[in-house]
Specification:
single chain, mainly beta, Jelly Rolls, 8-stranded antiparallel sheet, 6-stranded antiparallel sheet, 1 helix
């Protein structure tokens, strides 16, 4: 390959990477916690029941979550813990796969969760590995959601007894004040987590919560422009 062709190839690669990573805009006052190049500052949970071998990597400036092997998911966690914060990110999720955004997560993935599932409870507030006293339903999300495209999420969480709010593509979905802190021992800090749900059932105990259809083969959840503002 000639030097001219090599130069053109590298230039095109840079343009593609820039287009993938930079479409969308991190709001003023937010600090990136994903560098757009690799998973420095993040780690895969080694204790999650979702799985510990998920295929998590960065491609074209985008965090990509897939199952590996098929049936086994996992959770990608920020190394740093956060207490009161606003989180901003953009997500592109394939249909027929279940995941979520975890806030104040433990290493094993006990957390308040914003569900990412189409079809499913998209944008709903749930508990992962914990009971949440007061959930929430994103009743108007269909008005702003762009299927198969990038969608922005802004999540605000503050207070020892949490008050949690969600905006999707700039429109507020809900705001919930929990009656109690639902974490064991009243924990007030935790990690940001991105979940790829498991789908294989390997034990009789797991069959009580059968998620066999929660992740189609080859599907992915993708994230970019991940940033936080500590309050």
């Amino acid at each position: 390959m000639s030097l001219k062709k090599i130069t053109l190839f590298l230039l095109l690669s840079l343009i593609v990477n820039f287009a993938n990573a930079q479409i969308g805009k991190i709001p003023a006052g937010f600090t990136p916690i994903f560098n757009g190049k690799d998973l420095k500052g993040w780690h895969t949970s080694r204790t999650s029941h979702q799985g510990t071998t998920g295929n998590f990597y960065v491609e074209n400036g985008v965090v990509t979550l897939k199952q590996y092997p098929y049936g086994q998911g996992g959770i990608l966690l920020s190394d740093k813990k956060y207490g009161n914060f606003e989180l901003y990110l953009e997500a592109k999720i394939d249909s027929f796969c279940n995941g979520g955004i975890f806030i104040r997560s433990t290493e094993s993935g006990a957390a308040y969760q914003i569900e990412l599932a189409t079809p499913g409870g998209l944008g709903d507030l749930l508990g992962e590995r914990m009971n949440v006293s007061k959930g929430a339903h994103a009743e108007t999300i269909a008005q702003v959601w762009k299927p198969g495209d990038w969608n922005s999420f802004r999540i605000r969480m503050e207070g020892e007894v949490p008050r949690i709010s969600l905006w999707v593509n700039g429109k507020q979905m809900w705001e919930v004040t929990e009656p109690v802190n639902d974490f064991v021992a009243g924990e007030t800090k935790g990690m940001i987590g991105l979940q790829a749900h498991w789908s294989a059932v390997y034990s009789a105990a797991a069959e009580s919560f059968n998620m066999a259809n929660s992740w189609k083969p080859g599907a992915a959840h993708r994230f970019r422009n991940i940033a936080i503002k500590e309050l």
